[in-house]
Amino acid sequence: MKKSEFFQSLCAVFDQEVDGASFEERMELIEKCFSEYQKKHDKKRERPNYGKPWSDGELRIVLQSAPTVENCLRYAKLFGRGYGSIELIYRWASTADRDIPEDKADDVFIAHVKRIAKEVGWRAS
Fold first, then answer.
1. Residues 6+ apart with CB under 8 A from 84
2. DSSP for residue 53
3. What gap in Å lies between CA 85 and CA 72, rounded to an integer?
4. What pTM did the predictor assign?
């Protein structure tokens, strides 16, 4: 299938009515489906920085945004990493020190995330 044919067939699907949903509701559904599709197929994307250490600057950028699916996808693409890696950053940043499991207490990645999270003003519950 050519790109133009693919585009036309996708738009035809987008134009279909959805149980009386408004245009805005349909757009939200399309965006949600697109996000879920990207998450499901995350391993198919190139991830050149997968498993490599994070810089302070990269963590600051991630932690200065809300922990949403859209932001996780955005930063995974931007930094060449997996969706789950970004999700973990948000998860560890929001975990109180007392709630970190003992076997993870000395984890370098977690300590790095916690340090940057504190710098940018995150408060774990």
1. 42
2. P
3. 9
4. 0.85
Whose structure tokens read 């000395």?
106
pLDDT tens for the chain, 125 residues: list them.
999 999 999 999 999 999 999 999 999 999 999 999 999 999 999 999 999 999 999 999 999 999 999 999 999 999 999 999 999 999 999 999 899 999 988 899 999 999 999 999 998 75
Cβ-contact 82, 68 below 8 angstroms: no
In the chain the first and final C-alpha atoms are separated, in Å, by: 51
Secondary structure letter of residue 48 according to DSSP: T
Cβ contacts of 104 within 8 Å, gap of 6 or more: 110
3-state SS of 108-123?
Answer: HHHHHHHHHHHHHCCC
Please report, for the chain, the start and end positions of each structural domain, with discontinuous segments joined by +: 1-40, 46-125
